[in-house]
Amino acid sequence: MKKLFSILVLFSLSLVSFAQGGDWIELFNGKNLDGWKISENPASFQVINGEIKVDGPRAHLFYDGPVGNHDFKNFELMVEVKTMPKANSGIFIHTQYQEDGWPNVGYEIQVNQSHGDWRKTGSVYSFQDVKEVYVEDGEWYTEHIIVQGSKITVKINGKTINEYDESKDDKRGADLGTKKLSHGTIALQAHDPESVIFYRSVKVKLLD
Length: 208
Hints:
Layout: H1 2-20, E1 25-26, E2 36-38, E3 45-48, E4 51-55, E5 59-63, E6 75-83, E7 89-95, E8 107-111, E9 141-148, E10 151-156, E11 159-165, E12 185-190, E13 196-206
Antiparallel strand pairs: 1-13, 2-5, 3-4, 4-13, 5-12, 6-9, 6-13, 7-8, 7-12, 9-10, 10-11
């Protein structure tokens, strides 16, 4: 048993160092939500056929695993996602676990093709928003988020659609509050019972 425990510890450490070496590492194992922590309504997230199905009342799925000690600063995040009609979701960055409510730490990168909210996929929600729609509901696409220094870059299927530089946002005061770049984990959003979304890959690459 001690030998098995030692092997598991070494394996976990190797995953962390692998990510820190600048390579992609998958945070979702395709089987269950080990390494993740759900707020508010756990039933809103299920693993079905190797995919995370988001379907239910408000909840957030926070990464709480060993990679980077779930505390990222400069990093790339590559997510494979599919939205169903009128679905709304989001990917939070530099956030932290909270038991209920909308996360009040960090930024939300929007996931929305046809929901009534005019802020569409790729928006840095309410700070630099995107009105155009680049993919269709029902199709898998990649949402690639790069966080480096004061800058957030969002790419959809490899195309850069949004570049937000916090340091150049002259509409914000000196006190940025909790909605700012700092460090923290990531989270996926269940927005409402009408929103059905699928995630099948959540990969991270840690940067210097």
